UniProtKB/TrEMBL annotation, chain A:
GO biological process: respiratory electron transport chain; tricarboxylic acid cycle
EC number assigned by the record: 1.3.5.1
Protein name according to UniProt: Fumarate reductase iron-sulfur subunit
Domain 2Fe-2S ferredoxin-type: 3-96
Membrane-traversing stretches: none
Residue ranges of domain 4Fe-4S ferredoxin-type in the record: 140-169
Keyword hit for Oxidoreductase: yes
TrEMBL record, chain B:
InterPro entries on file: Fumarate_red_C (IPR003510), SQR/QFR_C/D (IPR034804)
GO cellular component, as recorded: membrane
Record's protein name: Fumarate reductase subunit C
Keyword Cell membrane: yes
Length: 247, 129
């Protein structure tokens, strides 16, 4: 194994006049080093001006997402040795505006997420004193997969629909709506459907399926979206056949 | 909040050639046109049959012209792509459960091929009996 590998890193300085440029760095190629380790090496030893996000280094916080050789990846879980002999292209997550270097602007998602009301909605308002809502292991299983999302935004970076139409509410937001819909304690399915039945909701999706392929947590947002489409379609048929009061 | 001067990256018209998965997706979308073509073709056949022997012979002669044959061969290939890709996607779109357990994806896909075979056999029996 060669002892170094070249990173081709996107640089963008908002205070400068020009757009993004590529800067090359050679970093040590070690078996246990991830792309994030390579970037941290650059930051510590070579160029302190390089900007990128990270925190946990263990696939939990979801902040280190970048496009590695064109694929959205958690850089803390992507090994340099898999790209040997290199070079490795490291770019900011696709489909998001660049703030600086490898840091992208996630404001759009922050604004969209609360629209699907990703919290437990109840008809009754029980207090802590009233006790907890019990749930069986089967009831937990029903939504567990969709609750694994770490908001890493890899699915948005992989989604051509989101890239072409930024109004699309997007894979992770819909998967989270499904997570709460499937929760036995929740009564908010109706309210979420009202949001997702709109064009920018589930119907924006053309089932490319790339979100599910890139998701590091096996959330399967594409599956969640198609299931929502079935719900929305059923709702449309019901609305057509039955007067409002009967539904 | 301070105004941040962010950089927006334009999307290339050729984004779908960047990854094999994107390419297959666009071809799958395109295949719908050929599915529609076969519907039209079938209606034309039924219409010709309805108008009698001579019209039917005319239809057969037209269907044997080279460009129609080429079109139908291409359309068949797209149809196969359409069937295979959609069958493969079904387990994701439908949460099939057997006695509370999630049915394995392969079972869902296989049952669709069985369904296709049964319907095809029925149609074959219908037209050849
Ligand atoms: S659904 Fe998967 S890819 Fe999308 S934000 Fe959540 S964890 Fe990341
Ligand atoms: S640094 Fe937290 S997920 Fe990679």
């Amino acid at each position: 194994m060669a002892d170094s590998i070249r990173l081709e890193v996107t640089r963008y300085r908002p205070e400068g006049d020009s757009g993004p440029e590529v800067q090359e760095y050679d970093v040590p190629l070690r078996k246990e080093w991830t792309v994030l380790d390579g970037l941290n090496h650059v930051k510590d030893e070579v160029d302190t001006t390089l900007a990128f996000r990270w925190s946990c280094r263990m696939g939990i916080c979801g902040s280190c997402g970048m496009n590695v050789d064109g694929e959205p990846k958690l850089t803390c879980a992507t090994f340099l040795s898999d790209y040997a002999p290199g070079p490795v292209r490291v770019e900011p997550l696709a489909n998001f505006p660049i703030v600086r270097d490898l840091v992208v602007d996630l404001y759009d998602f922050m604004e969209k997420l609360p629209r699907v009301k990703p919290w437990i909605i109840r008809d009754d308002d029980l207090t802590v004193i009233d006790g907890e809502y019990l749930q069986t292991p089967e009831e937990l299983d029903a939504y567990k997969q969709f609750s694994m999302c770490i908001n890493c935004m890899l699915c948005y970076a992989a989604c051509p629909v989101y890239g072409l139409d930024p109004e699309f509410i997007g894979p992770a937001a819909i998967a989270l709506a499904e997570r709460y819909d499937l929760d036995s304690r929740d009564r908010g399915a109706r309210e979420r459907l009202d949001v997702l039945i709109e064009h920018e909701g589930v119907w924006g999706c053309t089932f490319v399926g790339e979100c599910t392929r890139v998701c590091p947590k096996h959330v399967d947002p594409a599956g969640a979206i198609q299931r929502y489409k079935l719900k929305a379609a059923k709702e449309n048929v019901m609305a057509f056949l039955l007067p409002r009061g009967a539904r | 909040m301070t105004e941040v001067r962010v950089h927006h990256r334009p999307i290339s018209t050729w984004w779908w050639t960047r990854k094999p998965t994107y390419f297959v997706f666009v071809m799958r979308e395109l295949s719908s046109i050929f599915v529609a073509w076969f519907v039209v073709y079938l209606l034309m056949l039924v219409y010709a049959v309805g108008r009698g022997e001579a019209a039917y012979e005319d239809f057969l002669a037209w269907a044997a012209t080279p460009w129609v044959v080429v079109l139908n061969v291409v359309a068949s290939l797209f149809l196969v792509l359409h069937v295979v890709t959609w069958f493969n996607l079904t387990p994701q779109a439908m949460d099939v459960r057997i006695r509370g357990q999630k049915a394995p994806a392969s079972l869902v896909v296989a049952s669709q091929y069985v369904g296709l075979a049964v319907v095809s056999a029925f149609v074959l029996w219908l037209v050849t009996r």
